[in-house]
Amino acid sequence: MARQNTVFKEAYNRCLGDLCGRDRLPSEPELGEKYGISRTTVRAILSRMRDCGLITWDKRQKIILRPPQDQDYFPEDETNSLNDIIEKSFMKRILTGDAEPGTQINEAELARDIGAGTTSVREFLIRFSRFGLIEKRPNSHWILKGFTMEFALELTEVREMFELRSAAAFATLDRDHPAWANLDEIEQEHLEMLADIDNRYKDFSPLDEKFHLLVHKVSGNRFVVDFYDVIAFIFHYHYQWNKAYARTRNERALREHLDYIAALRSRDSGEIERACRVHLRSARETLMESVPH
Amino acid sequence: MARQNTVFKEAYNRCLGDLCGRDRLPSEPELGEKYGISRTTVRAILSRMRDCGLITWDKRQKIILRPPQDQDYFPEDETNSLNDIIEKSFMKRILTGDAEPGTQINEAELARDIGAGTTSVREFLIRFSRFGLIEKRPNSHWILKGFTMEFALELTEVREMFELRSAAAFATLDRDHPAWANLDEIEQEHLEMLADIDNRYKDFSPLDEKFHLLVHKVSGNRFVVDFYDVIAFIFHYHYQWNKAYARTRNERALREHLDYIAALRSRDSGEIERACRVHLRSARETLMESVPH
DNA sequence: TAATTGTATATTGTAGATAAAAGACAAAAT
DNA sequence: ATTTTGTCTTTTATCTACAATATACAATTA
Q1: Residue–nucleotide distance: A33 CA to C30 C1' (Å)
Q2: Are B235 and B211 in contact (CB under 8 A)?
Q3: Chain D bases having any atom below 7 Å from a protein CB
Q4: I want to staple A221 with a disulfide (CB 3.0 to 4.6 A). Which of A155, B136, B154, B290 is the partner?
Q5: Quick one: pLDDT at residue A245?
Q6: Are A223 and B126 inside 8 Å of each other by CB?
Q7: Which of residues 81-140 of B touch strand D (CB under 7 A)?
Q8: Alpha carbon of A1 to those of A5, A8, A111, A112, B55: distances in Å?
Q9: Rounded distance between C-alpha atoms, residue B159 and residue B166, angstroms
Q10: Chain B positions in Cβ-Cβ contact with residue A161 (cut-off 8 Å)
Q11: Residue B12 burial (CB < 10 Å; 0-12/13-18/19+)?
């Protein structure tokens, strides 16, 4: 098959979730906008909903007939894009320490294991190479450099350089810059999470990413922001598979963030640098502890 | 056709150049090592040389019969790898200002213009995206962000951060670290080029790259070194198509490098920072002047 | 016995094909 | 006068196939 209709299936599921508590659906362009898909895909979704007896659909009239049931949803594993499947499968190998640094990576073998075509795997590896974990020998194989202590140190060195600079730049933003409002919002989310930390400590990862991305973005430098992708990517998978002490670590990070946010708001450059360094140091330690050894 | 034999043709031409001034060729593995190719390709080269009457070849005996003539060489445009062709063609569009920032990039159209398959163009674009000049909308087109003033400023900002840090680290290297010997060598090349600047100013670009790469490498940080690739890439094409004032600019840069090298050797951190900043500022100006406007 | 060669096999680089998804535009509806 | 829809076209994502190139291993040579 040439391409899986995962965009359709994934959007269909999201759309089902929004079917409750209303009696009709908005226009096709509006739905496309809402779910981030084209009208072609919206129409495919509407067609299927009609065929399943979920709605009636006649031009502008899209009337909801019944709420969705479990069997209306597509199975979750059919909604992941091929790239996500490859990425997840590959990261599992690397971060759980299955594959030794220095190992050769074989495109065809990897493709076979994952159940994807070689082109897709190849494109994934090219995209992935910017994370510094693999390296290509032209006309020959890839080499796994591995999630090692050196990697963690090099990554955090650059991260600290960039974040200290971005944090310093934060203090110089106009009072009416939208970043201040975002900061308030993020602070609020921190407080809410801390108030119910026992149940919510697992949701920390996306909030962490949101906060640091905001800081990096004020650098106004695409290379700095792009580099934060690398950090976020590594931390994302790290949080997923390294649960040890998650509760303690995350609570500590939340409190450090609040201190950091207060420092930013003070616009005092010395204070910002201090708070930023404190947090970056513990982030580094967290990462280093997660290196397989 | 599935793949062009450019590796073979390019290595064949290099091998022809080494045919003069000797009467026999070394073993197959040795040749493979020398030209960076596999034995399979070495044997293909030897076969053709025999067929063309350049050598006799019987097992270990590879006797050279005659020096190569012009018609023995493959035409130069058959020796460029497909990726180089795509890269060059694409960079020409961007740097000469043909394509406006914000333009959509169409994979199929680009492939047709260049005369390559879509897969190769697609892979090129993925690799190229790390340079920050294009950006992908998933399931849709690429957008050309363009070689703009913002790009030049963001690029140089990071470059300066990284190079100042690497230069500072240079001073802390052991006396017997190989980088010092490399530095001496590079200084010598600078002096030679300056002595005959009128004729040799065009060869500055590779020397420039060699020097800065040496500095960046002592950081021992893969992200810093990888980022220098971006710089080198941009400067490479910039030197190729922007000849204005080349003579003046290059002579000035050579002198700044010599000053910078002397500062590194002094191991005086203040002096290093001064010399490094002086050169980085003029490098930034050079780049900014080359932005189409 | 260590390097080299002959031969067979495995892997990469690239083209071409096709379904999914995006996008364009005129007709229809508010 | 917009917005929405119906229809058609374009483009991307992905698979498969195959020549170029790399790699593995046994046979041969020095």
Answers
A1: 21
A2: no
A3: 3-9, 11-24, 29-30
A4: B154
A5: 66
A6: no
A7: 105-109, 118-119, 122, 136, 138-140
A8: 10, 16, 15, 15, 51
A9: 10
A10: 161, 165
A11: buried
Q: Which of A141, A221, A224, A225 would you mutate first to test chain B, the one with the most B CBs within 10 A?
A: A221
pLDDT tens for each residue of A134-152: 999 999 999 999 899 999 9
Cβ contacts of B111 within 8 Å, gap of 6 or more: B117, B118, B120, B121
Question: What confidence tens digit (pLDDT) does each residue in A9-68 have?
Answer: 999 999 999 999 899 999 999 999 999 999 999 999 999 999 999 999 999 999 999 999
A29 CB below 7 A from strand D atoms? yes
Which candidate, A145, A288, A161, places its Cα nearest to that of A223?
A161
Strands A134-136 and A142-144: antiparallel
Residue B137 has pLDDT above 90, yes or no: yes
Mark yes or no for CB contact B157/A123 under 8 Å: no
Q: Which part of chain B is CATH 1.10.10.10?
A: 6-77, 82-144
Count of beta carbons in the 10 Å neighbourhood of residue B287:
22
Give the closest-approach CA distance of B158 to chain A in angstroms: 7
Task: Quote the pLDDT of residue B242.
Answer: 73
Q: Domain B149-289 belongs to what topology?
A: Four Helix Bundle (Hemerythrin (Met), subunit A) (1.20.120)
Domain boundaries for CATH 1.10.10.10 within chain A: 6-77, 81-144
Q: Which residues contact A127 (CB under 8 A, 6 or more apart)?
A: B126
**Residue range B82-144 in CATH 1.10.10.10:** yes
| Window A66-85, strand D contacts by Cβ < 7 Å | 81-83
DSSP 3-state assignment of A42? helix
CA dihedral B160, B168, B239, B243 (to 10 degrees): 90
Strand D reaches within 7 A of the B141 CB: yes
Amino acid at B211: F
Positions of CATH 1.20.120.530 in chain A: 149-289
Mean residue pLDDT across chain A: 94
Of A123, A221, A230, the CB nearest to B158: A221
Selected from 1.20.120.530, 2.60.40.1180, 1.10.10.10, 1.10.630.10, the CATH number assigned to the domain covering A81-144 reads: 1.10.10.10
Distances (CA, A) of A91 to A87, A182, A281: 6, 31, 25
Q: How far is A130 from chain B (nearest CA, A)?
A: 7
Q: Which residues in chain A have their CB less than 8 angstroms from residue B154's CB?
A: 220-223
CA gyration radius, chain A: 23
CA B120 – CA B6 distance, rounded (Å):
15
Select the CATH number that applies to the domain covering B6-77 from these four: 1.10.150.20, 1.10.10.10, 3.40.1650.10, 3.40.190.290: 1.10.10.10
Nucleotide nearest to A27 (CA to C1'): D4
- The dihedral through the CA atoms of A175, A177, A182, A185 has a sign that is positive
Residues of B with CB below 8 A from A6's CB?
A: none
Residues of chain B contacting A151 with CB distance shorter than 8 Å: 222
Alpha carbon separation from A167 to A160, A183, A211, A280, B213 (Å, rounded): 10, 12, 11, 12, 29
